[in-house]
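Appendix B, Record 12. Input sequence as logged:
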Amino acid sequence: MAHPKHKVSSTRRDKRRTHYKAEAPTVATCSNCGAPVLYHRVCPECGYYRGRVAIEKKAE
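Logged structural output:
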């Protein structure tokens, strides 16, 4: 196993970790009903995905 010869300073350690951050998910609008939808997912409001019916939603 590798053993460090010197202590890694907190600045150097934190500079290495600067790219680890949370990103907001990409949200699109449904082409059928206009509801906000996450990318590559079926619309929870109408059940459409890419212009086609993916799941049948019950009429209320």
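The first helix runs from residue 10 to 16.
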